[in-house]
Amino acid sequence: MAKIQKAVIAVAGSGTRLLPATKAMPKEMLPIIDKPIIQLVVEELVEAGIKDIILVTKWDKKPLEDHFDRNFELEYSLKKSGKEERLKEVIRLAEMANFIYVRQKGPYGNGTPVLSAASLVENEPFIYVWGDDLVKSEVSFTKQMVDDYNKTGNLMIGVQEVPKDQVDRYGIVKLKPDTMQIEDIIEKPNVKEAPSCLADFGRMILNQEIVDVLKETSLGKGNELWIVDAIRTYVRNGGKYYAKEIEDGKWLTTGDPLNYLKTILAYAVGRDDMNGELVEYFQKLIKLKK
């Protein structure tokens, strides 16, 4: 069984729900305290042993490339100032993995980045990630998935329970009784038609078979190409695909202002250098509001 050594990250979105903040900055570069969203995603992948990281981009995503490149002027300045820890950190960014950049081509939709990178992951399993989805967990969720794959060979997608009134925002899975094997997966069903409250998110293991199905998949809801439509066809044709829940962690989306702020707070309260003062500050704010 081939090992998973590559990841494809979809980062070609425009971040319109976060305008005007994303007018001149990729949404994936928005900070979660002192690290951009995309760096946290990459660190999760690297912790899982991923060597090659393929970012599917578009014309305005150059800051992503710069972030994971060497900056010799900055490095010289940090060294001259004696800021050795800062220097090590900025050098580490460029050395974490082999970064490959591909321009997205094709119809709108989260299936298109897979097709844009298909020639680079031909005939091997790979991780597919959405660049604005984070998973805060004790052990990298990608590592949890890869470890599971190494034991079972199962293809899988990350899932998490969402409130019933939010199922129309996500792909929702239906599981076979008493298993984590997916029987069906529906993109953004209405509340009455949703088979469960288990929403998929941007962590999945794919292979060549699913890529081949995706190549033949028609545009779906909203006239977009959806990866879950390909997974659905794969399952209906007899393929086995599984849901994977997070162990000791939580999926955090950053695609809109409220959830972005919640994500920042979730990371902040997990840091020993700021959680005490932060909690105290919010307690004061609550008292003032009362």
Helix content: 25-40%
Distance between the termini: 60 Å
Radius of gyration, in Å, reads 20 Å
Strand order of the largest sheet: 5-4-1-6-11-8-12
Largest sheet: 7 strands, mixed
Any idea of the CATH topology? Spore Coat Polysaccharide Biosynthesis Protein SpsA, Chain A
Mind telling me which CATH architecture this is? Alpha-Beta Complex
Output mean pLDDT.
93
What is the CATH class name? Alpha Beta
SS-based class: alpha/beta
Query: Can you say what the CATH homologous superfamily is?
Result: Spore Coat Polysaccharide Biosynthesis Protein SpsA, Chain A
> What general outline do the C-alpha atoms trace?
globular
Number of helices: 10
Produce the secondary structure layout:
Layout: E1 6-10, E2 31-32, E3 35-36, H1 37-47, E4 52-57, H2 62-67, H3 72-80, H4 84-95, E5 98-103, H5 112-116, E6 126-130, E7 133-137, H6 141-152, E8 156-161, E9 171-175, E10 182-187, E11 198-206, H7 208-215, H8 227-236, E12 242-245, E13 249-253, H9 257-268, H10 275-289
Parallel strand pairs: 1-4, 1-6, 4-5, 8-12
Antiparallel strand pairs: 2-3, 6-11, 7-13, 8-11, 9-10
Helix pairs in contact: 3-4, 7-8
Please tag this protein with its features.
single chain; 290 residues; alpha/beta; 7-stranded mixed sheet; two-stranded antiparallel ribbon; 13 strands
Can you offer a commentary on this structure?
There is one protein chain. The chain has 290 residues and is α/β, with parallel strands linked by helices. It has a single domain (6-271), classed as Alpha-Beta Complex (Spore Coat Polysaccharide Biosynthesis Protein SpsA, Chain A). It contains 10 helices and 13 strands. The strands form 4 sheets. Strands 5-4-1-6-11-8-12 form a 7-stranded mixed β-sheet, with helices on both faces. A two-stranded antiparallel sheet has the order 2-3. Strands 7-13 form a two-stranded antiparallel ribbon. Helix 3 (72-80) packs antiparallel against helix 4 and helix 7 packs across helix 8 (227-236). The radius of gyration is 20 Å and the shape is globular. The model has no long low-confidence stretch (mean pLDDT 93).
